[in-house]
Write the structure tokens for this entry.
Amino acid sequence: MDIKGLDYNTQREQLVLPAYGREIQKMVEHAVGLPTKEERQQCAQTIVGIMERMYPQVRENAEYKQKLWDHLAIMSNFQLDIDYPFDVSDALKIAKRPQPLAYPMADIPVRHYGKMVCQLFEKLKNMPAGEERDELTRMTANQMKRDLLQWGHCSNEDEKIADDLARFTDGVIQIDLHTFKFEKINEREFLSQRTKKKK
């Protein structure tokens, strides 16, 4: 459906600083096109005044005026020829987008257990038998149980945890389900916390 005069934001030119909205952006474009420096200067002062009223909380910041003039320079793509009351050369740093952070994509054999539990598997493989390894095994198995509940797997049965623990430690860790005691987890409470987090 094409109605004259009705368009969507997705069809319009992207805003430089969306926080100020399209009307402020139009005002800045208008100021850039004014013929005399005096008119541009007066229009810029008015725009900065409106920007300040839009966000009165910025007054708490010591350099709030500098920030507003920096934003004006950015929105005009540094084309607004006026006498700025502040040095806006640092505004270029604000305008530049930071490089995206590299996401550490580690090789995790089972994502629902996560990287840390997989690191525990490796640690358990190389630990000498004894009380310390037994305690770490207990903690790892209980964390695995919580992870299975957290990610909503149909099966969080003790047999699965014992099998996974043996498989991912290359058979080094074998837990006897007749003697091994898991921590008590109130599944209903645990699952209700999970659904609350999703909301």
